[in-house]
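Lab meeting minutes (informal)
Scribe: AK
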Amino acid sequence: MNLTGYGRPVRVKKEESVAPTPYAPNRPLVPSPELTGEALRLLVKVDRWVTLRELPENFPRVLNRLAVVWGRPSEADRCFEELLMNSRANRQGFPLAVVSELTALRHFYVTRAFPKHTDPWEQMHLR
């Protein structure tokens, strides 16, 4: 219920208030959102080591999502895992160029951006 400046309630029709679900079969195709500021900063940061062309152009939503979790290693690992591994059979998957860019970005992430420091004594237990 919305109150106007005159104190009278304005009722909204049900058709207007119901948003289409993302999985609606007759949903019109909506272009992908633009890159956010965080995603643009991430592109500048990794440009020296990883060349990203297809990902920002064709899948900006994915790059925006990675930029949000970039500084949190546990969430970023989970995000890379979800993007690179097929957990749902009804998905088409990324084109090969995008998969190679995502793989290169993940490699940069785990080797240069946030390398995992291992304890040498802990490694002795694993042998």
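Next up, CB showed the second protein from the same session:
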Amino acid sequence: MNTPRPVTRRLTVAFVATLCCFVISGCDYEVPITAGPTRKLDERLLGNWISKDGKEKMKVRRLDDSTYIGSYDGDLFRAFHSDVAGTSFISAQNIDSADRKYVYLTYTVSADGDRLGVRDVNTEVIPKETKDSASVQRLLQNNLQNPRLFNEENQFTKEK
């Protein structure tokens, strides 16, 4: 008889690995996807967000017309849109760390604007050793149909 324990353990390990990737060492890349913003802010992202389990908090604010400033569990980030081949990406730089590396993200916002899904790019598909934006863009474009391009989605709810 199969027990759900191995499935639960795998899901827990996957969740913890994703969380650790994003929060602790999530900023793996030395360059942004694009040298600068490719479009203006998405107003729907602005506000305070809390994870489904209530343990993670994210604040997103406007720095200027095309740059976000935010915090994720106390770490400060600067972020902007880095669209590639019609796909919306965000280059987010950890400005709290000495190395100021980037994480590459994509997101979805629900129609009512109250739910946010965030996925980071898998470093096994886009290696963190990639040192220039043009190479990152090429790799992203070549892997847009690859189901492994993104890690698991983190879901947030907008605080009222």
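CB comment: Strands lie at 47-51, 57-62, 68-72, 75-81, 90-94, 102-109, 115-120, 154-158.
No objections, moving on.
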